Amino acid sequence: MPLNSASPYGALPSAKPQLVSRARSLYAARRPWRLFFDISAFSLPFSYAEAMSRIRQNFNHFRVNYALIVLTILFCSLVYHPISMIVFLVVSIAWISLYFSREDPLLLFGRIVDDRVVLLVLSLVTVVALVFTHVGLNVLVALIVGVVLIGVHAAFRGTEDLFLDESEAAEGGLLSVVR
To answer: What family does the Swiss-Prot or TrEMBL record give for this protein (predicted)?
Structure first.
């Protein structure tokens, strides 16, 4: 890890998570909803191979849109579970404050807590919250509905009008010679 000499704690490992900047760039990579819901782009695939090719290409192109749809479905699945929503709101605030938006190292009883420990503890707290609020099946069904909707959209949306930008092409699109 690079050292952060500007830290008030001296030369400590930089604790600024790269996930924050990555999350911002991923949200910026969201495709316009008008393109996502373009009715004229929908058609039946001619074969299973074409459907799978469409699914791969659409998933790569619309991955942020798909993630937002799954999160919205998950949120809607908790509407009738107000206690669960409150618990998950508290857990989300913990994730945001303790992991995503923290720039300085986390100090607990005068010791620096590693980001991996914070990630592990927050993950365990999230799983325990799922178990104790009895919404595990509800969340599972919401995730299945989201995956099915994404699969149907990705299989039936044509890919003829989708173009890769330079960074996508370099990451394994048109310039990839090894698959």
So the answer is: Belongs to the PRA1 family.
Looking at residues 76-81, what average pLDDT do you find?
Answer: 84
Question: Could you tell me the residue range of the domain that residue 100 belongs to?
Answer: 48-156
Reading the block at residue 121, the tokens are 């503890």
Q: CB–CB of 139/130 below 8 Å?
A: yes
Strand, helix or coil at 113? strand
Asked whether residue 134 is domain-assigned, the answer is: yes
What is the distance between the alpha carbons of residues 98 and 114, in angstroms, rounded to a whole number?
A: 11
The 10s digit of each residue's pLDDT in 4-44 is 445 444 444 444 455 556 555 555 556 778 888 888 888 99
For residue 1, give both structure tokens: 């890890």
- Tell me whether residue 37 is in a domain: no
Number of domains in the chain: 1
Backbone angles phi, psi at 15, to 5 degrees: -105, 0
